Write the structure tokens for this entry.
Amino acid sequence: MARSRSMVILVFLTFFVMSLLTNILGPIVPDVIASFHVSLTGAGFLAFAFFIAYGVMSIPAGFLVERFREKSVMIVGFLVSMAGSLSFALFPGYRVAMASFFVIGGGMAMLQVAVNPLLRVSGGEENYAFNSALAQLVFGSASFLSPRIYSYLVLNLQSHTSDHSAPLRLLARLTPPGLPWASIYWLFAFCTLLMILLLIWLKFPRFQHTDEESAGSWKMYRSLFSKRVVWMYFLAMFAYTGCEQGTADWISNFLYKYHGFDPHTTGTSAVSWFWGLLTAGCLIGMLLLKFFDSRKVLIAAGVGALLALSAALLGSANVSVVAFPLIGLFTSVMWPIVISLALNSVAEHHGSFSGILSTAVIGGAVVPLIIGRIGDSLGLRGGLAFLFVTFGFVLSVGIWSRPLIENATIRSRKPSELHS
């Protein structure tokens, strides 16, 4: 089986660019509402369109990986994302935004399906949990950087000074004066173009795709859908994405409604710290995965998340504003552990399975809506209590999972391997 450090680095770079495009959705919502005069529901449909694209494109992307291999699918994925970014940059409007976000989400789904098996093969199955946690760290660092780039562009393009650098002056000419925030999509188009050129130039090693790593035939999907464990991991990934988005989407509202915190200052800061601690937690998770079985780490993280959620919902104002970001810390290791346990729990068809798991990202669109629906009847605290169900299911993976290949730890290595 081929191992390639350059391919691992390429996967990390792909995750970074994917995060830049994905995690800008939250920061631009206020500008979408103000610029296009839409309701909160209308603004919410933009994120919904993005996540639904994962559900539409993930399994077809598995067929594409099987037919055309990872390099071609990644190039097409970035081309699709560039087309979506350019369409909105050229014709900024609400209806165009809906279509553009769906297109970009489809491109992200293609990339996700291609890079997960690529990381597993090029980095080694036994290191997949650790490499997935590192990929989550890269993804999180971009989610921290993307809003700051967005803020920098908006503030500078609004100032209309002659001291701007050449790129800023170019963006000022390309972007409508009343929509400086739309300039971020010119930057996204440029980043995706660079990735396309890099992929065209880069020579991929020839990976052997036996049934174990193949993706895409109907026979493979029928085989996978007949397995109970596949459905269980699909629900686990659905629950995880629901946990992540369901928490982040409602933090500011909860702090304002129950504790009177300003959503533009304290609320925004709490959301920012949620993503920041989610990113920082990846470092802790990577260390823990070198010493402990990933299932034990997942159980501990699940217990921590449930305790933090309890404190956030039932604690005082000062407790709640700290406990919500702490949920991000405990959530940080869940995604890489669950997906590595999933792919290491089946003996074949990992590319197809990756497509099924990527489809589960629609949990990030569905769970926040469930919380809102319950909240309309029982209050937002009652709605957010639904997260006990989703976090509880993610925790249960650490109890019932039986991976064929366990994550490599220092304790599991032979003495000769430690000194090699």
Observations:
- The mean pLDDT is 81.
- Residues 40-90 form the longest helix (51 residues).
- The chain has two domains: 1-209, 227-420.
